[in-house]
Amino acid sequence: MDTTTPAHADMPADMHADTRTVRGACPHDCPDTCALKITVQAGRVIKVAGDPDLPPTHGALCSKVSRYAERSYHPERVLTPLKRVGPKGSGQFEPVTWAAALADIAQRLKAIAARDPQAILPYSYAGTMGLLQGESMDRRFFHHLGASLLDRTICSSAGGEALAATYGGKLGMHLEHYTDAKLILIWGSNSIASNLHFWTFAQQAKRQGAKLVCIDPRRTETAEKCHQHLALQPGTDGALALGLMHQLIVNGWLDEDYIARHVDGFEPLREKALAWDPERTAAACGVSADEVRGLARDYATTRPAAIRLNYGMQRCHGGGNAVRLIAMLPCLTGAWRQQGGGLLLSASGWFRGFVDAAALQRPDLLAGRRPRTINMASIGDDLLRAGSPAFGPKIEAVVVYNSTPVAVAPESPKVVAGFQREDLFTVVLEHFLTDTADHADYVLPATTQLEHLDVHTSYGHTYVVFNHAAVAPMGEAKPNTQIFRELAAAMGFTDPCFSDSDEQLAHQAVPAIDPDALREQGWVKLPLPALPFADGGFMTPHGKVVVNAPGLGVPDYVPPYESVASAPALAQRYPLAMISPPARHFLNSSFVNVKSLRSIEGEPLLEMHPDDAAARGIADGVMVRVFNDRGSYHCKAAVGVRARPGVVNGLGVWWRKLGAAGTNVNEVTSQRLTDIGRAPTFYDCLVEVAPA
Fold first, then answer.
1. How far is residue 513's CA from residue 133's CA, in Å, rounded to a whole number?
2. Which end of the chain is more exposed for a tag (fewer CB within 10 A), N or C?
């Protein structure tokens, strides 16, 4: 028998000896947020497939999530609480009971909080994107405690804040409407690897005659499938946007009516753009002047024209300004007037009014306190700081969940040194003994997506998706929500909010959505207009696009911190620009330990152009050392056309202990921050490469 049983999916496994299908949601940091159909037989998941009925994802799954059962049933799953018995970083632990672990953790945190609760820091990100397991009971716990707040900037805050400053929110066109476009600019995105379902819509548009243009320093799998590839220098996207504006203006390709009605303050931007003729733009970006002219002509004269902007291009010093400039382009041509025209970076702002974050996270539990905020991107420096009046108390405890900062945070030599402090008390909620878990005092076993309930929004489409627990938790694993409930009880917190069940949290998360429809169907579409900005109506106070944003001014090109042009003295020693895009079969650091996926990736790679490799005596397949003043790491050289001259691509993010010499690409990345959004500048990095 094969039945879909959402209402009973969280029942004990032994009550379902027959085969059944459970509705779920992909939890990972990806714009697609796929609805899943999970096949369970005799209490065990035997298949994870996409739900063909969800319009934006239509049943296809990436190679990573199609192997999700392999990850959940991995033989190295942490299935009991563990207490450290060896040196920090050794990964030496002994099993303990939940009662013993929680009692000791609570005692340690109480002692620190008695001195100053701000000495305790939560560290989490998007290991799950679920509203419950990612940002509910955990936030209540730390708000009640008065711990330091975490500025969660590591991935998208530069682009997100820039887009919000321009449009009034993280808003964009409907994913499905890309099929109607006749020109699609895929800007800073390897969509085949990181946005698979957008790519299927782009392919449909291509079959209907659309031209696809990829703008990316790397010749990605996506670039190879497009009609045109502009391999610009890293961090020069803002200059290219200004160069396109120059051509729109001088050739009379502006939609003056749309600008007059729906753009506030265009004139100062017009003056800036007029200084960026094709020759200047080409020199800054490392492309030809004819490529600038041709792209501007195509964008202005092809209707509808759409931009799929992604977060790769905002991981440089000027990333925020670049997003503001690119977001102006469809407003200057009036592309928003037509279905298939516009731009999408993030759709998460559409969920405003449907998700009640305050009800989930309960910031009122701070009770008027204003704890300091620690930027997750500067965790290396911050863990090594002493207390001071400007910084506040020294960080004495870190609780890590849904992230592994030792692998993913920039300038990892400092991150490792911080987590190796013997006086730092570290608790990690995890599925596996990651690089970060190896440095923990306690590792607490967390459930995977197949074992708990959750609710998901998306930043790539406009559907709310429900996740039922398909099977009972393995071993002694518990959902994040339950771990923080029990930790709150051990701390003596008595507020009734810590008794809310996951079912109650799910209702609190999306109060404007019919809960029965969401549970039964597995997903609900937001009621939004088809052409949201055809007649203005942006989420700004006056409904217009903002050029001169308060506190930000008029957007402009901000060059990289580290490039041959902007830092010539540094480039004498480290002449190669390095970007670190994700390996195709990993998702940030997730899935690195799934053997079938790691076998496809092989080993950590540095892509080099043949000219750069030859100048250094480097052949394809040899081990190399990548280095700068911050550190060095070892990997294998992949010499070929993926890299443009002067740029190397260090594919990430490998677990350090699974990489060569126990390091990864973040040995050399920087803790410097972007112009907007306080985000890390992973792709703003000069290095040198030598044979190892």
1. 19
2. N
**Residue percentage of the chain with pLDDT more than 70:** 96
Whether 77 maps to a domain, the answer reads: no
d(CA 344, CA 459): 9
CATH number, position 135:
3.40.50.740
- Cα 409 to Cα 428: distance, rounded to the nearest angstrom: 16
Tokens at residue 101, please?
């672990």
Residue ending a domain, choose from 525, 551, 586: 525
In whole angstroms, how large is the CA radius of gyration of the chain?
Answer: 25
Q: Does residue 150 lie within any of the structural domains?
A: yes
What contacts 166, CB < 8 A, 6 or more positions away?
323, 324, 327, 328, 545, 546, 549
Task: State the Cα–Cα distance between residues 522 and 26, nearest whole angstrom.
Answer: 12
670 occurs within a structural domain: yes
Q: Decide if pLDDT at 172 tops 60.
A: yes
Using pLDDT thresholds of 50, 70 and 90, give the confidence band for residue 60: confident
Between the alpha carbon of residue 459 and those of residues 33, 195, 450, 661, 663, the distances in Å are: 8, 11, 22, 36, 32
Asked whether the beta carbons of 384 and 411 are under 8 A apart, the reply is no
User: What ranges in 230-373 are assigned the alpha helix state H?
Assistant: 237-250, 256-262, 267-273, 278-285, 289-301, 319-333, 357-361
The pLDDT score that the predictor gives to residue 598 is 67
Domain total of the chain: 4
Does one domain contain both 188 and 141?
Answer: no
Among 460, 493, 525, give the residue marking a domain's end.
525
SS3 (DSSP) at 644: coil
Q: How do strand 631-639 and strand 523-525 relate by DSSP bridges?
A: unpaired
Angle at 597 between CA 592 and CA 600, to 5 degrees: 120
Give tens-digit pLDDT for 527-541: 999 999 999 999 999
Beta carbons of 28 and 459 less than 8 angstroms apart: no
Residue 514, burial from CB neighbour count under 10 angstroms (0-12, 13-18, 19+): exposed
- The predicted structure's pLDDT at residue 588: 65
**Structural domain span for residue 634:** 568-691
Phi first, then psi, for residue 323 (nearest 5°) are -65, -45
Write down the H helix ranges in 127-167: 131-135, 137-145, 157-167
Which of the four pLDDT bands, split at 50, 70 and 90, describes residue 242?
A: very high
Chain-centroid distance, C-alpha 344: 15
User: Quick one: 60 and 123 in the same domain?
Assistant: no
- Per DSSP bridges, beta strands 228-230 and 211-215 are parallel
The pLDDT value given to residue 458? 96
Predicted local confidence at residue 64, as pLDDT: 82
